[in-house]
Amino acid sequence: MESHELPQMDPRVLKATSVRAEDPAAQSPEPQALKITAASSNPKMFTLPWEKPLATWPEDLLVNLPRGISRHVVRFVHVGDEVYAMKEITRNVAEREYELLRRLQKLELPTVQPIAVVTGRHNAQGEPLEAILVTKHLKFSLPYRALFARNLRPDTAERLIDALAVLMVRLHLAGFYWGDVSLSNVLFLRDADAFSAFLVDAETGDLQVNLTEGQREYDVDLARTNIIGELMDLSSGALLPSNVDEIEIGNRLVDRYHSLWSALTDTDKFSPDEMWKIEKRVNKLNELGFDVDELEMKTAEDGKRVLVRPRVVDAGYANRKLLRLTGLDVQENQARRLLNDLDAYRASTWRDGEDLEIVATDWMREVFEPTVRMIPREYRSQIEPAQFFHEVLDHRWFLAEKAGHDVSMTEAVKSYVENVLPQYKLDSKDVDALNAEADSGVIDDEYTYNDPDDDGYNPDDDPDAAVWSH
Predict the structure, then answer these.
(1) Is the dihedral of CA 61, 56, 142, 17 positive or negative?
(2) Cβ(388)–Cβ(350) under 8 Å?
(3) In a designed cystine with 106, which of 16, 113, 158, 350 is the match (CB 3.0 to 4.6 A)?
């Protein structure tokens, strides 16, 4: 879209893209030469084998990370020191999704980072190949199926749903209509005892000034339907705990979404002598992780009440406070836990009267950094330092309760590394199984049809196959 078509939209999104997506219905010629439109320069991008279908790229370029189920060919690729996710799709869809992701990033919403869109690809015979959308791999993140492949807590499904509800509310507040909400279109990061969800697939999305209630409810209803189906699929594969009710989890998303939307957008009514409740409302929003930029206040028609509605600008209240104090950029619940430990350190060292910035510097040097340096090398790509610190604190409390006395951080770390941390590791066999399952959902990879074990079946010759195309 041109910027003049979005007069009321957040001005940050108007300068968020260098690509103008074509109308998907319009027929326009493919570029005759390779074209890479990138948000940032990485010279290694030009050395990749763009003339080959993505499904046939050499193994030495690929990174064996678990992939989510997708309709398209997706691969993780080494590009210099970075790991990028490559998705092979049509040019119009690739350009449109790249544009949307750029705009959402400008709004500081939790999405994967768009890197480039590659068009004008041709094979050695000069035949056109589909475009590729390039995004940066979200470090430490996992698709939901990979999370259930591990020995996780029984309430994992509920925690994932809570994270998805928060993501949906944040996107809807920004005017993003998703159109295809499901667990498969999200990546999850551990966030203390919860999860954070990140949008990974924006193919069907649309960024608007404001969403109607009907658009929001459509997303919510579709999310519920898809989630129930995805959880039932997990259950059939014996990956879901037997006591999990898939329909109840789907209903939980609806309830959680509406509860959070109400907390963020409802107008409260106060009498003039109840203005202290305004601070209570703001504190509640801060506890939910949202910053309040300003309050809209007006007198009710009867003149006896004041109507107050907060203007919520973004999530990340604790995150920004910790970032200002320590330079650590972590998830919201992780930040809350680290701030609590910082407060405990401040009290235990009798430094309540000192500037918090000075105390935070000492806490980093004496507590946080020595702890996270003890993460074994082979696990440094498996768990975030802030998550490691949080879980060590939990493990330390568990050990102290069992022993009946305090336990040192060093002792707690050693016990955690030996007894808990191995649960984080997915071996290559697990990853291969997950990726084989993910690839089974691909519908546009014609190059997989040239399989030496092909039985010769052609769906075009099967009169019953047409039933499945509708």
Answers:
(1) positive
(2) no
(3) 16
Which residues in 123-267 belong to E strands, given as ranges?
131-136, 176-177, 186-191, 194-199, 206-207
The CB density around residue 243, as the number of other CB atoms within 10 Å, is 6
Closest alpha carbon to 198 in 272, 143, 277, 280: 143
Q: Where are the beta strands (DSSP E) in 141-289?
A: 176-177, 186-191, 194-199, 206-207, 268-270
- 3-class DSSP state for residue 457? coil
Joined tokens for residue 198: 């990140």
**163, amino acid identity:** A
Structure tokens at 357: 């910035």
Alpha helices (H) along 74-130: 91-106
> What is d(CA 374, CA 292) in angstroms, rounded to the nearest whole number?
38
- Higher model confidence: residue 238 or residue 277? 238
Q: Look at 449 and 372; give whichever has higher pLDDT.
A: 372
What single DSSP character describes residue 368? I
Q: Which of 336, 330, 342, 344 is nearest to 383 (CA)?
A: 330
CB proximity list for 166: less than 8 A, separation 6 or greater: 196, 197, 260, 289, 315
Report residue 129's pLDDT band, with 50, 70 and 90 as the boundaries.
Answer: very high
Nearest one of 239, 215, 211, 58 to 146, comparing CA atoms: 239
Contacts of residue 327, defined as CB under 8 A and 6 or more positions apart, other chains included, come to none
Is a pLDDT exceeding 90 seen at residue 235? Answer: no
Stated pTM of the model:
0.76
Round to the nearest angstrom and report the end-to-end CA distance of the chain.
Answer: 31
With tokens 């910790």, the residue in question is 322
Tokens describing residue 378: 């082979």
Q: Stretch 310-335: mean pLDDT, rounded?
A: 79
Kindly report the number of other CB atoms within 10 A of residue 98's CB atom.
26
Mind listing the pLDDT tens digit for each residue in 57-106? Answer: 999 999 888 888 788 899 999 998 899 999 999 999 999 999 999 999 99
